[in-house]
Amino acid sequence: MNGDVRRASSVGRRVAVTGMAGAGKSTFSRALSAKTGHPIVVLDLHFWLPGWTEPTEAEWREKQKTLLAGDDWIADGNYHSTLDLRLERADTVVFLDIRWWICAWRALVRGVRTRPVGFELPAGCEESRWRRLRDEWWLAWRIWRVRRSERETELKIISQHGEHAAMYVLRSKRAVREFLDG
Questions:
Q1: What's the sign of the alpha-carbon dihedral 49, 53, 59, 61?
Q2: In this structure, which CATH number among 3.40.50.300, 1.10.10.10, 3.30.70.940, 3.40.50.1820 belongs to the domain 8-99+117-122+149-180?
Q3: pLDDT value, residue 4
Q4: CB 3.0-4.6 Å disulfide test: which of 22, 27, 134, 149 passes with 106?
């Protein structure tokens, strides 16, 4: 596992970007895509069925197998139950190991901010201002509750299924910037 910061130019063709909610996975993935040209697979867009309904685990696994069938991709998301699928195909793993309180703060702020231009919701899913505020603030609460176990769970799954992949652990905005400046 590489704790050092390497350049974005050293990433492979299939990149799994993971980390706690609010760690900056989507922002990082967009920036990495701009540097590498690899398409982004935003897992949240594909997970939710119309009306914010969750798929069964079997449906979700099948959908991800299809999404990850390509030769080049950046998979943006942290669904632990299917992280093994992404790791099996990934040649690079970027773990955004950002402090929990920063992640929680970002979720709180995200609840009241206007969505960025180009932000997409899953097909058939509507989002009111109230729903967004409720969901993001609930997420901040969840981040606090799992702040100790989330990191260990993720690293355990990565060690079990991603030994073959180059691993980059980025622990700060500065580390992210240095990685992307390649």
A1: positive
A2: 3.40.50.300
A3: 45
A4: 22
pTM for the complete prediction?
Answer: 0.91
Q: Is 6 exposed, middle or buried (0-12, 13-18, 19+ CB in 10 A)?
A: middle
Phi and psi angles of residue 93, each rounded to the nearest 5 degrees, phi first: -125, 130
The string of pLDDT tens digits covering residues 25-57 is 999 999 999 999 999 999 999 999 999 999 999
93, containing H or E segment: strand 92-96
Q: Tell me which residue of 112, 107, 141 sits closest to 26, measured CA to CA.
A: 107
Alpha carbons 98 and 165: distance in angstroms, whole number: 21
What average pLDDT is seen over the chain?
A: 92
Q: Order of strands across the sheet with 73-76?
A: 40-42, 73-76, 14-19, 92-96, 166-170
- What is the separation, in whole angstroms, between the first and last Cα of the chain? 19
Q: Which two tokens stand for residue 106?
A: 């970002």
- pLDDT of residue 9 exceeding 60, the answer is no
Q: Say how many residues make up the chain.
A: 182
